[in-house]
């Protein structure tokens, strides 16, 4: 059975766990998923793109290698009342020191006294993967929600305690990991990515088969 190795351009253990779980559920082959640090990459990657896709591509491209699939997710929160902010600056929204509490506190302050009907938002996830042969596979995913005026739940990470998902009447932080992975922005982008990856692998297998058959004919 084919075994695929993925190196994730992230040091966020929560994000890596989510991506690994979704890949394992989507792909019908054996996989190995490691962080970029585990793969020996310790340099800082400057994320200077203006979109989630650009940042994901920058990170994935920095890790490209003939021995693995380099995969990067760039994701964040987009609040309509704030004209899309924090957007690509979601992880460092409140500045140094960068942490979830400071980011959430700043978001709540900016939305202070804003009525619930104007607190609409969505999470965005852009997935970019650079295959061993240099091909680029990508996908996007979004999940709509509302920003609450106080946190709920102890799970998840980032803005999850403030992000209310109406269909389940819960914040992302109140969901189990499995529950979140079934409906989140990253789940949607990873599902779309897995579909594109399957097409890529099928095409690659076909090309490899034709290549071997051609060389077999030549050597007869």
Describe this structure as you would to a colleague.
The chain has helices spanning 13-26, 52-62, 100-110, 177-183, 185-219, and strands at 3-8, 30-35, 69-79, 120-130, 136-147, 163-165, 170-171. The chain has 220 residues and is an alpha/beta fold. Strands 2-1-3-4-5-6-7 form a seven-stranded mixed sheet. Strand 6 and strand 7 form a beta hairpin. Helix 1 (13-26) crosses helix 5 (185-219) and helix 4 packs across helix 5. The longest helix is centred in the C-terminal third of the chain and has 35 residues, at 185-219. It starts with a strand and ends with a helix. Residues 215-220 have low confidence and may be disordered.
Strand % is 15-25%
Q: Outline, from the CA principal axes?
A: globular
| Cα gyration radius (Å) | 20 Å
Could you say which structural class the secondary elements and strand pairing correspond to? alpha/beta
Distance between the termini: 28 Å
Runs with pLDDT <50, length 5+? 215-220
Number of strands: 7
Mean model confidence by pLDDT: 89
Helix and strand run: EHEHEHEEEEHH
Strand order within the widest beta sheet: 2-1-3-4-5-6-7
Counting H and I runs of at least 4 residues, what is the number of helices? 5
Biggest sheet record: 7 strands, mixed
Q: Helical percent range?
A: 25-40%
